[in-house]
Design a protein that fits this description.
The protein has 158 residues and is mostly helical. It contains seven helices and no strands. The radius of gyration is 22 Å and the shape is globular.
Length: 158
């Protein structure tokens, strides 16, 4: 059963990445533009620290993760942003996330941390760009390996 599940792991990671990115981007859009049922269309005033910058990171980082563009870098910045939010905003209110309303910050932080290590999964735009550019590189490295083996054989027989 494990081998069957492992075969679908890249697809599950992609689904996880897409959902986490979408939720994070929606959170940023709600803060910046008052979308998605935010009470009284409350938005963060442009340029205010840290709220506006966090909202921009959420919208941009979430969108990049959602699409699978620069996933590891976007996840790194997003995870750091959520760690900052948890420790600076929520943790002073209480030790545990249930006490300080920091569950979302903690979950996003750990979800993005996981994506840093797993990568984007099977369905990511990065893979399309890498595949187009990587074809030439892969061919060259195969040729280099073949030439290297030929040189090794020639040296060994001489």
């Amino acid at each position: 059963m494990t081998s069957s599940l492992n075969r679908y792991q890249p697809y599950a990671i992609s689904a996880f990445r897409i959902v986490v990115g979408l939720l994070f981007a929606c959170h940023g859009a709600a803060s910046l533009f008052g979308l998605f049922g935010v009470a009284d269309n409350a938005t963060v005033e442009a340029g205010t620290w840290p709220g506006w910058y966090a909202a921009v990171i959420q919208l941009v980082g979430g969108s990049l993760v959602l699409l699978g563009i620069g996933t590891r870098s976007a996840a790194f910045v997003s995870s750091g942003s959520m760690a900052y939010a948890y420790f600076k905003v929520h943790q002073p209110e209480g030790l545990f996330p249930l006490e300080n309303s920091g569950e979302a910050s903690a979950m996003f932080c750990w979800a993005f941390l996981l994506l840093i290590f797993t990568g984007p999964g099977a369905f990511a735009l990065d893979k399309v760009f890498t595949r187009s550019a990587g074809t030439t590189v892969t061919t060259r490295s195969s040729e280099d390996r073949t030439a290297g083996k030929s040189r090794e054989r020639a040296t060994a027989t001489a």
